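tool_call predict_complex ligand=zinc ion
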Amino acid sequence: MKRDELKTAIDYYRTKVKEEMAGEKKINGQFIGPRNPTNKLDLDDLIHPERPFLSKDVENDWDSIYVTTFRFGTLKKPVSMVKCGHGTDLLGGMEFGSQLVQKGFIKSVKDLVPVFAKYKLGILDIFSETDVNNGKKMDIMVYECIDCVGLPNIGEPGCYFESGIITGIFKELTHKEVFAEEVRCWTSGYSFCHFSVEINHDPEGSLESQ
Ligand SMILES: [Zn+2]
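tool_result ok
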């Protein structure tokens, strides 16, 4: 995607972020977005998602097809075991994120957006960044995420692999303690993923607003 197309996409989704967060609920400590909840997630939900911006430079319906192929991999886990796999997905993502830096795919923070777009993982947006005592807090959004775009609202976020990727990248770039948690997702009723990221320069201290 070209730089101006990325900017158009980010502007479009930032408006959605504001609208959906304005109408959100908090249930048992979990933010829940505006889409109606369901308790089932099956094959029909996983296949052929629409990604209006990331599909623009791909012919025919190829974007929908390779995203579906990627998702077939998640069906290796039986539904009853999916939650047991979250830690594995997180650790796998962390290793993958570290490798992206070690192998030179990502050399600095400014490479994140083009690399995520090039490999069609999603449209990454560093939405906000705050310096705090002992470190930094960031809100990172991912739009049209390969893992969850179009999935139903099952009441909790599901992008553990992407949380791991973001953690691994920042850990490797900063050599600090990093914690990334997905707090909003398609699977908790939104049209975007929101990762809350903390980079702690002093592992002994806590992150508090200055
Ligand atoms: Zn997500």
